Amino acid sequence: MVSFRTLLPTFVLLAFAECKINWGGCNQLQALQFNSSTIPVPFQCGTLDVPLDYSSQNSSEKLTLELLKAPAPLESKGSILVNTGGPGLPNRQDFSTLARNLIPLTGGQYDLIAFDSRGTVNTAPLTCYEDPIQEIKSFLGQKPSNKSDVAVGELWTRGTVDAEACFEAGSKNGSVMTTAFVARDLVSVVDALEEDGLLRYWGFSYGTILGATVAAMFPERIDKIIFDAVQNVHEYYHAQANFEEWELSDTLFSAIFSECVKAGPELCALAAHNETAEELEAAAYELLEISKYQPFPVGQLVVDYAAVKSTYAQSLYTQRAWPLTTALVDVLFYGTESSIEEVLSGLPHINITGLTLPGLAATDIALAGIYCSDNQVRTESFDEFVPAIDKLYSLSQIMGDLGVSSYMRCQQWKIKPKETYRGSLEHVQIKNPPLFIGNTLDGHTPLKSAYNVSASFEGSVVLEIDGYGHGSTAVPSECSLKAISAYWVNGTLPEPGTRCARDVEPYTNDWWPEVFKAAGVNETWIHKG
Ligand SMILES: *[C@@H]1O[C@H](CO)[C@@H](O)[C@H](O)[C@H]1NC(C)=O
Ligand SMILES: *[C@@H]1O[C@H](CO)[C@@H](O)[C@H](O)[C@H]1NC(C)=O
Ligand SMILES: *[C@@H]1O[C@H](CO)[C@@H](O)[C@H](O)[C@H]1NC(C)=O
Ligand SMILES: *[C@@H]1O[C@H](CO)[C@@H](O)[C@H](O)[C@H]1NC(C)=O
Ligand SMILES: *[C@@H]1O[C@H](CO)[C@@H](O)[C@H](O)[C@H]1NC(C)=O
Ligand SMILES: *[C@@H]1O[C@H](CO)[C@@H](O)[C@H](O)[C@H]1NC(C)=O
Ligand SMILES: *[C@@H]1O[C@H](CO)[C@@H](O)[C@H](O)[C@H]1NC(C)=O
Ligand SMILES: *[C@@H]1O[C@H](CO)[C@@H](O)[C@H](O)[C@H]1NC(C)=O
Ligand SMILES: *[C@@H]1O[C@H](CO)[C@@H](O)[C@H](O)[C@H]1NC(C)=O
């Protein structure tokens, strides 16, 4: 197969190379958004115009990328571009909370930069319904497929309607938001930075799909890459669903209860029932079943199957969210007196009021716009998709029914992307072999996928971190801090087979600041809290 890249005239790529990014303060709106998580260095904001459609030789239409920078506290050795995952999520916003940990992890010697990808936030968003009510309805229609016997058929039809509406109303923006275009944007940003002309890139989760794509398209433009919480890029582009992602979801869910029992009732109140980890886990699954037929009233909320399921799913990201899941089981199943609101307010960094319905609806449609035009499989009928549903259900009881609606919508997607990467993803060679990172138990991207993609990158090494959750930042570890900063600063890869120990146990209050302190990180870079 030939990459589309070879068909492009080079002038399109060079025409914008002279643009520069003017970095300045963030305007008030941006400051409000990004200052809720102050870091030891002040964020800067900037914009860069890039071609809206790189595949068009005669179009001068531009797209304005919005960038956010966390400058290096020490003398900068250059910039690292960061993608925190998705697709469809607000990259700048997520980066604004992640940056506090990324600064020490890069030795304080790199400027860190993130921009909102095409199709997200204000950057060429996909709009499928002019009527905001229809848009919200479409979002609310995305329920877990195992909610009832009839849900799954309804979801297929929801997908038919959404795919058609997006095609009718959103083809313009919707055809230029593939990962291949975002890869070109990364290179445009590198050109505009006027450093050494090379991309240093750290991708988390979906960000590893972008990393694999940009490296395959522009191997000669890459200096270093970290693939963190690696997704199987072959499945992402070529399978009906991301099956491999969910292989360890249920195993991680079990660990929530075994670690609770291990921590004891002082740290995990659910352990006070003197039940085994297996009994507590069975209670969690029973709660899920009950919530299908008789949801719970919690303040102004009806806590139904979808709400319980999504709380469980969220808890797979980080052990810091485990107390919410164990509290839910404690209060709703065992009837322990305590209020969910009280539990919520005690949890670090969980701000549910920050999530607005239109905001969530926008990330949902952005996910469709990007993933559905990247994915190259289409399924003719609902019946033909049923085996994929069976496979997802058999892989994971926690995650198996959460992606079905989104996968089914993609199988019926109609917008034709202007460019999708169809080239090889094998034998990729870049200047410094990349570092792959996987946690021992990651419920969204199993370690196996890190080994899978690493096999395509000459000389690369997989670093395993012995902990729970999604990505290296979910497991504070002095060992990974040393390995990651050594890679960025010196290009040094760990020995193959290196396994880093975690330094923070579940259900305790310590986090990265304690680990940074113990590792002798410059005090002024350590964020409090
Ligand atoms: C961010 O917050 C700090 C402390 O609250 C304040 O001093 C600073 O001016 C704010 N920065 C911006 C860009 O709003
Ligand atoms: C680009 O040029 C082609 C051929 O001349 C024309 O058909 C097309 O409409 C042009 N596209 C734009 C966006 O101007
Ligand atoms: C700690 O970082 C600050 C900048 O944030 C720098 O001025 C100072 O020299 C650093 N201290 C050491 C010991 O490196
Ligand atoms: C398409 O993207 C442009 C540029 O970001 C934006 O101004 C426009 O509103 C978007 N169109 C739709 C229909 O959302
Ligand atoms: C659990 O066991 C401890 C120690 O054996 C005992 O003190 C406590 O009362 C028990 N709690 C329950 C709820 O049975
Ligand atoms: C939660 O987020 C909302 C919206 O971003 C903000 O107004 C509110 O202050 C935040 N609450 C806390 C406790 O951070
Ligand atoms: C779907 O629901 C059935 C019946 O409630 C249950 O036995 C099964 O484990 C569920 N599977 C998934 C993947 O949710
Ligand atoms: C990687 O995953 C893909 C898709 O599941 C599979 O076809 C391929 O054989 C795997 N490669 C390796 C090296 O494991
Ligand atoms: C990079 O290498 C130098 C020289 O070997 C060493 O002193 C330094 O600690 C290394 N930096 C990191 C972050 O590992």
UniProtKB/TrEMBL annotation:
> What residues does the Peptidase S33 tripeptidyl aminopeptidase-like C-terminal domain cover?
399-500
Q: Which residues form the AB hydrolase-1 domain?
A: 80-235
Any one GO MF term held by the record is:
hydrolase activity
Transferase: present as a keyword of the record? no
Q: Which UniProt keywords apply?
A: Hydrolase, Signal
Signal peptide residues are 1-19
The cross-references to Pfam families, in alphabetical order and at most eight, read: Abhydrolase_1, Abhydrolase_4
Tagged with keyword Hydrolase:
yes
User: Coiled-coil intervals in this record?
Assistant: none
The record's similarity note reads: Belongs to the peptidase S33 family.
Protein name listed in UniProt: Peptidase S33 tripeptidyl aminopeptidase-like C-terminal domain-containing protein
